[in-house]
């Protein structure tokens, strides 16, 4: 009989232990690999989206003449890395057709959005840029090539334009939605069926290196994106929750495996007496741990990929709404995901091998020191060990709290919060034990004193699963406080912000004042507020430090919102900080900024900022800061007169006030007014539903991790409790022999289980409140860019406490009759 057969015989006798270990590993690996797959795919999508955007300048002639090939040649001879682009738009009677972008593959390397993607990930996947794909198509095919996403190419085929039968199409990832790419000669041929616009583009940094010839000037064509770490912070938050799940799993695995080692202590002693060396036995146990971890991890990895695929659509919608990420491409398991599995294996082996290293120690009777858990009674820590553990926990808590207060980076905040949790986890079992010891000293009735002693034994035997449950409880309370707090704050903010009755999106860029006048003439409309959006470049310097010689590297792309300060629909807007008579000052000299921009750039009311809007620079005073939930970008709010229709990427929407929204046929306006044919009209209730749906998608993953972590910790605690209570049946049987009836003993056992889990939940609530503060006041501003008020939800605390009581009651009921007279046969 080999060692493998001996080890398998243990799990045949105790299949619950093997099932528990595999359950923990499968759940941990599933959640970790699922989260890592989603965050890795999101990180790749974000990298693709940000890599294709950079501040671009469009070259125009000073004399107003249209550009030609000679102008492009002259700019290239001047040493400027310029590239032509022909944009062709098609007019259809139904939906907006995709735009065909014609580029020159030979000179497109000047523009980052068209050249080969860099980085190890792109090279490993063989990712090709738009320019290189078009070059390959020109060299290897006689037919024109059109590149784009699958959905845009499908819309292109539905157009059925004449003369496009020979055009081949190919799907390429990472391109903006609504755009198809072709060689500029192909776009020129298609311009006859649409409207073409020729541009010569160059990066904004080029004019810093080589000045433009005198006959040309540059206008801002694309403001690019802000190189901000908010997306990485958002994804890091999900990874941190996955890592917390791994910590809980590590505690649970260690508790189950330590108990399994103690159960096998006598079998291991017999093997050593039969000639098996301690080293060989240790290596066999390590191999056993690795095989269990590999089996559970592999199954969990497969389930994690399935989980990631199931949640990819909602997660893509969240990224699109929050960070303008167009496409989330789910791929096969990445090296990062397998690295997560290696981490799981390392955690399992590390925690298990701490006890395996003790197998070489023999006591004076020839026995082995195992995990320290005695089958018949609790292990009693020495006073010195308990004091050292308490001192270590206090030092860890103090250092982590200092780090939490001073940390500026999100990963440092998470690391400090983890240190606080670990310090509290070291203290919780001892604190629970001391509370029960205090109650034991105050008891005057023998059975109550015995009950307190028995619960102290349970706390020592179940210290690791109890700590894991405490972490799960704290995480549940913290995440619930953040999510529910944001939900209530967001709802109040929407009620204050959405003052209009109807919201109109024209669907295409329009003349703002012309549409404003038309909308006022529609019966039932009492007020019209245009809201014009565009982009600007903010100088990083503030008041007293503004220099006219700053380079483009000092410019920060920000959103711009142009409004009419005199509109009655704006008067109830909430502000975090403001000056008196704010709207009148906005029209004269001021600018409003959102909370995200104020936090990131340390701007306060009264500061003066300088920004570039189109070809002109402006300097204005910050007169107010407003909350802007649901989006990470910085934003400037300016009077409508400053945001002209000539600015690039300008887009207008309209907020309409109505006398009685229920008495006007606003749904029929597109049919009654042909100029509204492409417009989209929505009422306030519809917008709120969309906003709440986006909110639910954003926190879907966090809630799922929260619930599964709590469920896993509770399940393993229940399994361990069943085994521990059955090992403690000798104590209950002795009381039965001494005259205590069976029914009261069974009720007392249930009471012990309920009291232990209930007291633990009470002690974990302050830890959950602390974690709520960390998430709301420290993590949330770093990950999303806005702060939220800290709310306490005592009703949810009561629910979690009742769940813990239910776990304890279920364990006590499942144990059944605690009296087993056969346990006294050796007494």
Return Rg in Å.
33 Å
User: Helical element count?
Assistant: 25
Report the span from N to C terminus. 33 Å
The main pleated sheet reads as: 8 strands, mixed
- Total E-strand runs: 18
What structural category arises from helix and sheet content? Answer: alpha+beta
Rounded mean pLDDT is 75
The portion of residues assigned to helices is: 55-70%
Protein model, in words:
With 827 residues, the protein is of the alpha+beta class. Helices cover 55% and strands 14% of the residues. It contains 25 helices and 18 strands. The relative contact order is 0.11. Residues 115-128, 223-230, 362-366, 370-380 and 541-553 have low confidence and may be disordered.
Brief summary:
The protein has 827 residues and is an alpha+beta fold.
Defining traits:
single chain, eight-stranded mixed beta sheet, alpha+beta, 827 residues
Ordered list of secondary-structure elements with their pairings:
Blueprint: H1 3-13, H2 15-51, E1 56-61, H3 69-77, E2 83-89, E3 99-103, H4 120-125, H5 130-140, E4 145-148, H6 150-159, E5 168-171, E6 179-183, H7 184-190, E7 195-203, H8 206-209, E8 216-222, H9 230-263, H10 265-273, H11 278-323, H12 335-356, H13 383-406, H14 410-442, H15 446-461, H16 463-497, E9 502-505, H17 512-520, E10 525-542, E11 555-563, E12 577-578, H18 582-588, E13 590-594, H19 595-601, E14 608-613, E15 616-626, E16 635-639, E17 651-658, H20 669-672, E18 680-683, H21 684-698, H22 700-727, H23 729-737, H24 742-784, H25 794-815
Parallel strand pairs: 3-6, 4-5, 11-16, 13-15
Antiparallel strand pairs: 1-7, 1-8, 2-3, 2-7, 4-6, 9-17, 9-18, 10-11, 10-14, 10-17, 12-15, 13-16, 14-15
